[in-house]
Amino acid sequence: MNILVTGATGHVGNVLVRRLAEQGHALRVLVMPGENVLPLHGVNATICCCDVRNAEQVQRAVHGCTDVFHLAGIIDITSRNAAPIYEVNVGGTRNIVAACLKEGVRRLVYTSSIHALPDDGQLIDETLAGTCASDSMPDPYARSKAMALEIVTQAARKGLNVVSVFPTGIIGPCDYRMSEMGRLLHHITAHPKARSHMYFDGAYDFVDVRDVVDGLLAAWQLGKAGEGYILSGHYVTIAEIYTAIRSAMGASFTLKRVPLWLVRFAAKLAPTLFRIARQKPLLTPTSINVLLSGGNISCEKARRNLGYVPRPFQQTIDDAVRWMQAHYPAKARRSRTRKRRMAQPSS
Q1: Closest CA to 19 of 227, 171, 215
Q2: Distance between CA 15 and CA 326 in Å, rounded?
Q3: 137-170: buried (b, 16+ CB within 10 Å) or exposed (e) per residue?
Q4: Cα-atom radius of gyration of the chain, to the nearest Å?
Q5: What are φ and ψ of residue 28, in 5° steps?
Q6: In Å, what is the CA distance from 188 to each residue of 168, 182, 246?
Q7: Secondary structure of the chain as H, E, C letters
Q8: Low-confidence residues in the chain, pLDDT < 50
Q9: Is 294 left (phi over 0), alpha (psi -120 to 50) or beta?
Q10: Contacts of 330 (CB under 8 A, 6+ apart)
Q11: How far is CA 301 from the centre of its chain?
Q12: Which of 136, 144, 167, 255 has the fewest CB atoms within 10 Å, i.e. is most exposed?
C-alpha cells in the first residue's frame, strides 16, 4: 500500500506521517517548493517536491498511490492577502480530487476544518456541512474551506471514496512550524519568570494534535464514504489555558483580565504593526471573533462511529509545554538576544 500525504510538514501532517511510518506503510510525502523539511527528519518516506496549485505536478505525485491524506492548506487569521488562501485551499484541493479520480485512488481522507461549517450559535455537528453558501462565511479562510468541502462533496457524488474530518483548534507537541496556539505557548515558555500575563474573556474548543491523527486514521479505516466527522476536544476559556500552562511549567505568574473593548482596539492595530515588524500577530479581529463564537461543537458522531476519544486537556498542555521547552529552551533564546544586543554599535 502506497500512501501520499500532503501538508506533511505541518503540525498534523508530521505527526500523521510518523504514525504511518511506525505502522510500516510505504509513504510518499508532498512538500511545497522551498518548504523546510525539518519536521520530517528521520522519517522513512519519499519526499516529493510538488506545488499543490500545479495540476500536472499533483497528478504525478498521486500516480501509483493507493490512498491519499490531503492536509495541505493555508491558515491565515489576518485575512490581509486572500489570494494564496484560495489558490492552495481551494485550487489545491480541486487538483488533488481530480488526480484521485483519474488515478482510481482507493480512499482519499480530506482534512477540512470546523470553520467550514456555519456557526449560528447553535450546536455544530456534521449535519451542517453544505447547508450554508461559501460566500456567506465570515472570512477568507472559512470561505476557502467551505468551497473546498463543496469540491470534495461533488467528487463523492461522482464516485470518489472520500471521507472528511473537521478538527477544531489544534494544539499539542511537535509544532515545528508554530501554529497560532504554538506561538502562544512559545511566547509564554520563553518567559518562565514573567510575573503576569494578560487575557480576555474568550474561549474555544481545542483538540490535541495526536487525537486528530487518531481520528484521521480511524476515518481512513472505518469512515463511511462521503461522510464527514468532527474531531473536537474540550471547550476551554483563555484563562483556563493560561492556568493549565502555568501548572505545566510550575510557574507562578498571575493573570490580568483585559476588557474586551481594549482587546478589540489592539487587534485592529496589530496586523499593521506586526507586518511592519515582519511577524504574525497573535490576535486579530478574526481570531477574537472565533474566541467569542461560543464553540458548542459535538464530536458524538466520531465517538460513535470511529471510537474517537479526546484525551484530557491538561495532558495535552503538559506534553506541549515539555516539547516546547525541549526544542526552544528559554535560556538559549535569552542568550541569543543578548548577543544580538552586544553586536549592535553604540550610538
Answers
A1: 215
A2: 17
A3: bebbbbbbbbbbbbbbbebbeeebbbbbbbbbbb
A4: 20
A5: -125, 125
A6: 22, 10, 9
A7: CEEEEECCCCHHHHHHHHHHHHCCCEEEEEECCCCCCHHHCCCCCEEEECCCCCHHHHHHHHCCCCEEEECCCCCCCCCCCHHHHHHHHHHHHHHHHHHHHHHCCCEEEEECCHHHCCCCCCCECHHHCCCCCHHHCCCHHHHHHHHHHHHHHHHHHCCCCEEEEEECEEECCCCCCCCHHHHHHHHHHCCCCCCEEEECCCEEEEEEHHHHHHHHHHHHHHCCCCCEEEECCEEEEHHHHHHHHHHHHCCCCEEEECCHHHHHHHHHHHHHHHHHCCCCCCCCHHHHHHHCCCCCECCHHHHHHHCCCCCCHHHHHHHHHHHHHHHCCHHHHHHHHHHHHHHCCCC
A8: 332-347
A9: left
A10: 189, 190, 191, 192
A11: 21
A12: 136
Q: The cell 514573567 sits on which residue?
A: 194
Cell 472520500 appears where? 162
From CA 25, how far away is CA 296, in angstroms rounded? Answer: 37
pLDDT at 331: 57
| Rounded-to-integer distance, Cα 238 and Cα 282, Å | 13
Residues in Cβ contact with 60 at an 8 Å cutoff, skipping those fewer than 6 apart: 50
Whether the model clears a pTM of 0.85, i.e. scores above it, the answer is yes
Instruction: Answer yes or no: are the C-beta atoms of 9 and 40 closer than 8 Å.
Output: yes
Enter the C-alpha cell of residue 332: 538559549
Contacts of 213 (CB under 8 A, 6+ apart): 12, 15, 16, 19
What whole-number distance in Å separates Cα of residue 234 and Cα of residue 144? 25
- Compute the residue count for the chain: 347
Q: How many CA atoms lie within 13 A of 246 on its CB side?
A: 16
